[in-house]
Amino acid sequence: MRTSQYILATLKEVPSDAEIISHQLMLRAGMIRRLASGLYTWLPSGLRVLRKVEAIVRDEMEKAGAIEMLMPVIQPADLWIESGRWEQFGPELLRIKDRHNREFALGPTHEEVITEFVRKEVSSYKQLPLNLFQIQTKVRDEVRPRFGVMRAREFTMKDAYSFHLSDECLANTYAIMHQAYCNVFERIGLEYRPVIADTGSIGGSVSHEFHVLAESGEDAIAFSSGSDYAANIEKAEAVMPSEPRPAATKELNTFATPDAKTIEDLKTLHGVKPHRCVKTLIVYGAPDEEGKRGLVALVVRGDHELNELKAEKHPLCDSPLEFAKDHDIIAAIGAAPGSLGPVGLSIPVIVDRSASILADFVAGANKDGEHYSGINFDRDVANYEIADLRNVVEGDVSPCGNGTLSIKRGIEVGHIFQLGTKYSDAMKAGVLNETGKNQIMTMGCYGIGVSRIVAAAIEQNFDAKGIVWPKAIAPFQIAIVPMNMHKSHRIPAVAERIYQELKAAGIEVLFDDRKERPGVMFNDMELIGIPHTLVIGERNLDDNCVEYKSRSGENAMYNLDTVVAELIAKIRG
Amino acid sequence: MRTSQYILATLKEVPSDAEIISHQLMLRAGMIRRLASGLYTWLPSGLRVLRKVEAIVRDEMEKAGAIEMLMPVIQPADLWIESGRWEQFGPELLRIKDRHNREFALGPTHEEVITEFVRKEVSSYKQLPLNLFQIQTKVRDEVRPRFGVMRAREFTMKDAYSFHLSDECLANTYAIMHQAYCNVFERIGLEYRPVIADTGSIGGSVSHEFHVLAESGEDAIAFSSGSDYAANIEKAEAVMPSEPRPAATKELNTFATPDAKTIEDLKTLHGVKPHRCVKTLIVYGAPDEEGKRGLVALVVRGDHELNELKAEKHPLCDSPLEFAKDHDIIAAIGAAPGSLGPVGLSIPVIVDRSASILADFVAGANKDGEHYSGINFDRDVANYEIADLRNVVEGDVSPCGNGTLSIKRGIEVGHIFQLGTKYSDAMKAGVLNETGKNQIMTMGCYGIGVSRIVAAAIEQNFDAKGIVWPKAIAPFQIAIVPMNMHKSHRIPAVAERIYQELKAAGIEVLFDDRKERPGVMFNDMELIGIPHTLVIGERNLDDNCVEYKSRSGENAMYNLDTVVAELIAKIRG
């Protein structure tokens, strides 16, 4: 490709609305342009990268035995009503009406459509297992689209769905797909980790996310120092401390805390160490048979954070978790948040594992402006339950039993689920089994954010000059930069010959034939992140040489007679 | 691919809701399934065909110098308002609102989005010409989706847009794209014709459609017997007859026609030959300065059909063309349709070229239940204009000047336009020209219905057994059909070896390893339309042979030792 017949669309300035480095560099390097909030056009260079990611994903899916098909973006509302998600999904599901006023959704995911397809087409266990995938434009009406293609409203996704007669068969396909995902990220050349994940609104039991590690990541991942264990912090278990609770040594005493509403206030004004006090959070309980919801107190150590996903999975709590309104708290407890504690409560109390081994600790006295010191469980707090309620922190014992946890940031680029029968039950998707009886299928689903991978790859591979693409997904393999070509006789001829010979060998070459100063051309090629650059200048030609630069900093001089063969070997090697 | 690990999804029965052969065969051969009206899932075999068409289109676009990018499906309403099409486009434009109640359209075409992109990114004539394309899912909310993927609501299209400083440059790119389109259809192996076309709602001046010829085509195409001239009947000119109008020989006379309302009635009840009378159609005229519309009479021979596109382009007629309501006709003329004619009208009269050379002809007397005979222009019809108002018919003189016209049916699979400045004017898309002044760009646009090509290819290539795919787009190149494999020792080994050897040579093989009767397997492979089939049976193996069948009827016996090499040569040849 000649730059004179291409759209480079590079920008010198950092766009003011781009917060993270990948968004800035994708704009500056001419990979994408914003059309509207969360809607991006892929420019030629960006599309080349996107297609390379797609091709690797497709290849690994086929190797894993998945079969490609293509479902519509526009999905009838009926199917979503049948699965129950028309109500559940919320405003991220972009709902539309056609000219006849019939309701549809623009697909963020295709569990309903594929289940509808399979229940109609597959009637016998002999046709199972089946693993179907597509690579497609998806739509999700994000409340706050941001970070460019990282969290866009229209994006490219690979979604696969598998159907089985037994959970063992599902687990087997799940393991194959897990490996295929590892292969994808390894081939692209990313530092990534599969982590144990929550199943969220998709549902199911076992689930793994695949994260590209990067400081800008929106997710926190807990890693064990002693094993391969890794989990999204949403899901990482905070284990029961092995040390026993010390015996009580102090009496229960109140002290006045008129200005202390937070753990920080207690520390500053009263010298209470955060890990020696607890915070008590009041949420609504699971509704009773008449639909009424009581209150539940959640108790975690002052220096710990409540993990809302863990709390909402506790049978006593309502789901999704909802914090109680102040007037409900005051009516039930007689004090407002800021002075709450576990002593003498008449509502159910759930105590986090780490908080449960405290002795002689501090908490609110359930009387405005007063706290207790010297609190001890059992003696002062009669009825309570112990559960894992908090986020793990750096240094926690790993739930795998080996080593301690460290926390890193990750960008979620893949998510796989053992769905079980959530959709096949709701949509009555069964086949005849070996005994001739109808049996509901069990399902897996497997997603990769194809367009998000492009951005995640940049978050992990850039420097001050621009993008440093991993070889497997660079938009071009090599750039040819002839210096002051338009003032020379020799340079255009040499550049053209090398360009044609590399192209003939199947190498993807960007030939910068613009009338630009060498500095402008170098800056553009580095910004775009092309792995190899060949510089053709008069002085080197005098020595029958051309200069080679790699994007990662390597420099070399090649003889003009052998340069093409050496470059081909270098690029393929 | 092994059928046991695939979804063949073939059907024995002809689906009752499929009207045309391609729709029936795409369902029966497991290419597509209907999700909802006009929304289809592409099954694995269908998707393989679709991707092959895409690849050919992409390759020819790149050879023509077009650069691929990818724009969003969801487009902001603002841009459509700016171009004027938000109002013009009608309900085919599927309009949606996001969670913030902002208006968007699902793109049926991308003139607005590409013009917005180019006006922002391109500032100098040095960056022109530019030819950008994408292959993408498009949405059009058809009032009556039908014929499967032929007229679907969601479909795959290749759309390209070119930008130029001059009309000459546009014409040059247009010619290159015209040739690229010919290359696409030739490579796919279709009988097609480029035809002169109307520009419709897209706009512009010069335009060609590319039609795949097939009896089921929705369009009528006029072809010259004496040249390459071909035009959509919408656009084909009916030339002025060369013979002069005969002199009048009869007096103007009325006759009673109380039961004759149509040309057919006049013929049956009164013996009037259709080509010796005229029909007079009353439409609304172009609005005057105050926006009022008068009436206009359109006169065509009794055996000819009004061409509404030609009529609405006449400056006296309103556009779009609208037939006058009966009460307006009666108020102005004093008679109702059925007894109308050109004699004594006080409204403008436009007479079709062929009607204008009639003498002594018959028409309504503008008095209910009466007709005139012996009408002659000039003597009886004082003020009239002559224009081309009718559809051409078989046998008409060709407008190219050579030969006569014949009419065939075609399926429109491509459409290219010299748009001119319609969008760039409305959206103020200019660049600095060589003199440093801002100049509006001139544009071309070029569409191919990628998914429609799949259906059109079937309309042209099928037989009683199913689809007969052109080699270039067949889902698989060869099928291996082992007979009663599960009862044999030798057959599975031979089939497996040939399968592996063909695969290793890069051939796309469908290996039918199902436990099905040979007849079922043959029927499926023929229905799917795979060009080559290799049959492996016990009896032939005794002779060290396997049987070959081509989908087009060829049969041969190959020696087991050389069969793979011979098949590879055959498939590639």
Automatic annotation (TrEMBL), chains A, B:
Gene Ontology molecular function terms on file: aminoacyl-tRNA deacylase activity; ATP binding; proline-tRNA ligase activity
Function summary: Catalyzes the attachment of proline to tRNA(Pro) in a two-step reaction: proline is first activated by ATP to form Pro-AMP and then transferred to the acceptor end of tRNA(Pro). As ProRS can inadvertently accommodate and process non-cognate amino acids such as alanine and cysteine, to avoid such errors it has two additional distinct editing activities against alanine. One activity is designated as 'pretransfer' editing and involves the tRNA(Pro)-independent hydrolysis of activated Ala-AMP.
Alphabetical keyword list: Aminoacyl-tRNA synthetase, ATP-binding, Cytoplasm, Ligase, Nucleotide-binding, Protein biosynthesis
Class of the enzyme per the UniProt entry, highest EC level: ligase
EC numbers for this chain: 6.1.1.15
Residue ranges of every copy of the Aminoacyl-transfer RNA synthetases class-II family profile domain listed in the record: 33-470
GO cellular component labels: cytosol
Organism: Pseudoalteromonas tunicata D2
Domain notes: Consists of three domains: the N-terminal catalytic domain, the editing domain and the C-terminal anticodon-binding domain.
Cellular localisation: Cytoplasm
Listed InterPro entries: aa-tRNA-synt_IIb, aa-tRNA-synth_II, aa-tRNA-synth_II/BPL/LPL, Anticodon-bd, Anticodon-bd_dom_sf, Pro-tRNA-ligase_IIa, Pro-tRNA-synth_IIa_bac-type, Pro-tRNA-Synthase_IIa_type1
Pfam families per the UniProt record, alphabetical: HGTP_anticodon (PF03129), tRNA-synt_2b (PF00587), tRNA_edit (PF04073)
Name of the protein in its database record: Proline--tRNA ligase
